[in-house]
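Incident log, structure service

09:12 report received: a user says their structure output differs between two submissions of the same chain.
09:20 pulled the input from the user's history:
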Amino acid sequence: MLLEDLPTELINTVFFSCTSVPDVLHLSSTCRRFRKIYQASQKLPILSHAIDAEFGPIDDVIQLVTHNDSQPAQVRRQVPWSMALLAQILKIGRVARKWEMLYPLKKWKVNFEDRRLLSAEECFRLRRAIYRLWLYDRAFHNPRNSRYTRLMRPLMLERAALLHNWTTAELLEIEDIRGVIRDVLENNICPSNGTIQRKFRKRFPEPEAQQQLMFNIHLNYPPPTAFQQHFHTTHQVTASDRFLNKFLPTPQHEPGAEGWGDEIPHYYVVQDMMKLDPGQIMWLKENAPLKGQVEGFVRGLGDWFDNNGETFGQTLDWVLNERGVNAQELKESIGLGQAGITKSLVGRILPMDGQ
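09:34 re-ran on a clean worker, output below:
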């Protein structure tokens, strides 16, 4: 018997067995009968099932795309399915898949002999951590949370209420992906002067190609904030500059100007940039190779962003201390490979895994 001659119920079962949106669309394009079955009342359930299999956990994505100021971030929301909702989930999920590809490169950057692809379960945990971190960024890293109110106890309790929704092992998964995000910021988006110097020497090792890079240095008149101190470029940035090499010296481009300062000012710049959500950081990595492009993006966010570091790390310590566990020891276990996305800790080293 031909596949197209099967009963509609069996064909629906085949549709629900698809594990990605392209598989569903390709199957629906095989013949007119399959197209009619797909476009009938089962279209939304079929697509939602495929999206959950490819980009799940879909419930965490729903909490992200439906978040607004009318409800606290920790309240679980139930919404009806629609094509508009699925389109938003698909957009968020594709960003999470990009972090899946980037995670092994950054996680095992030093001990690269251990580098491998993530398992299906690890990919699931990574996407879940991305969605939950993204929700935190959207809820608490915005103009309503300025540097003058971040330490107020009511706001601290509000931030902690969201983290209390997740177990200690799940919080460590978020902290694991935050380490990867920080590495992307420090080495790709906002490299320090030392990183620029090292990468320049690596790309041009010949003695005749060596030159003294000209970094932005302020001696006696330091501006008030770290961002303002390092927000200048040597030329006007255009759309075509995204294809240029930041380490290639030209009469119009000085590689040293791509540095974001030495250790201390660079640390505060990265702390500010950690407020960006995973989607914004991935966009900057792919579309803003030059410092001037990153400057323009950050300026467009408003004055609240400047000199206002991220709050997730502080809130995480608060929540772990409330649970009676040593936050520093658990964070160190991530670097040792005993915690985080690539290692499950439940029931082994976590003394408490309460809500």
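09:41 both user submissions now match this output. Likely a transient worker issue. Closing.
09:42 reviewer note: The first helix runs from residue 8 to 16. The two ends are 53 Å apart (CA to CA).
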